[in-house]
Specification:
6 helices, about 210 residues, homodimer, nine-stranded mixed β-sheet, alpha/beta
Chain lengths: ~210, ~210
């Protein structure tokens, strides 16, 4: 059955991006430290067309992350290109062939025509709210999952609205001290840990959100 | 070998006490939700002289927590009795026979004579700082561990000073939204997850702090 999921790397003190986020450094100072564990895996390198990397528990986790995703939803800041009306020259951070390969719905206040990239990624810009984006994602995802890709505010909105089924945290043993918090303004949802995977680098905990 | 440890229950959003802490409610609103998993275990109930409780993974965790502790260190707020010079009628929250059964060093700015309770707990009041308290704890603990019992500020001080060897977090799937944060003002220590124990109620992660 299709689930609405979010998987995200988070610091031990609760941040998903470091302080002083900017257009040039959208994950903030030190934010890259949250993702280092991914870059070191064989499965990630394979997806990037590179050899090498570690055949670790983390590599297995990364391999499974995107297996069953039928559509993505992301916030405007994650798509990038700055605030306000669109500069249509901006087509995201990911080049001609973004790593999604399925429809991606971008939450925005500014209308823009859909953008078909190479490899099956189609960015659709949704101006009428998170529920509309979810409906559109469901329509294309079939029995596959819908992944709320980020950033923090998009995840918070879906969690607060009771629309998230699973939150999969990769708890990185790094203390950023400041930055963008994931679990703020989300109300008091009931969570149950359903899967815990330990590695020397990260603790992966998947929570089911109980309705 | 003797380690300096801290084991503590923490909400998924990083709080070890709820908002609006007071003399009457020292763990704050909702703070008790962080400890519910302990109260349900057979080993906790046994320690309280009660029957019943669950013979769960969590029960095993609780049983092991205090096995090898030779001395405790706690902040003044955790010992209780309010601010300022001591009211010597206050002998802690725990009655005549506190659950420590070894020496406990209380960090305070106000001198007070040591207080011997039933069952081997002796409270010693340390006015000359965290390093002095640690030296005194080491002197009595022998090859057993020293546990920084809390609260958050005491833990933060030892972590920031590079004096903590292990941080054992019981990550409770509860979102408190506000309260007392554990991992604030602690600098940027290097942590390695060394033990991860999963249960349906809590995720227990023990971190070694690398020097």
């Amino acid at each position: 059955m299709s689930s609405v999921m979010c998987q995200i790397s988070i610091s031990l003190d609760g941040f998903v991006a470091g302080p002083n986020q900017s257009l040039e450094n959208p994950i903030g100072e030190g934010g890259l430290r949250l993702h280092q564990w991914v870059f070191e895996t064989a499965s990630w390198r394979e997806q990037q067309g590179e050899a090498g990397g570690a055949l670790s528990v983390d590599s297995d986790v990364v391999r499974d992350l995107f297996k069953n995703v039928g559509a993505y939803i992301m916030g405007r800041k994650m798509f990038g290109g700055g605030d306000g009306p669109w500069d249509e020259a901006w087509t995201g951070w990911w080049g001609e062939d973004p790593p999604y390969h399925v429809p991606v719905f971008v939450l925005t206040h500014y209308p823009r025509k859909p953008l078909a990239m190479q490899g099956g990624t189609i960015f659709t810009f949704v101006t009428d709210g998170i529920e509309s984006a979810l409906e559109q994602a469901r329509a294309v995802a079939g029995d596959k999952d819908i992944e709320i890709a980020g950033g923090a505010q998009a995840v918070q909105q879906y969690l607060r609205a009771g629309l998230l089924d699973e939150l999969y945290l990769h708890i990185v043993p790094v203390i950023l001290g400041d930055g963008e918090r994931l679990l703020a303004n989300v109300g008091d949802p009931t969570l149950e840990p359903v899967t815990v995977i330990a590695s020397p680098a990260v603790t992966h905990v998947k929570y089911r959100i109980v309705r």
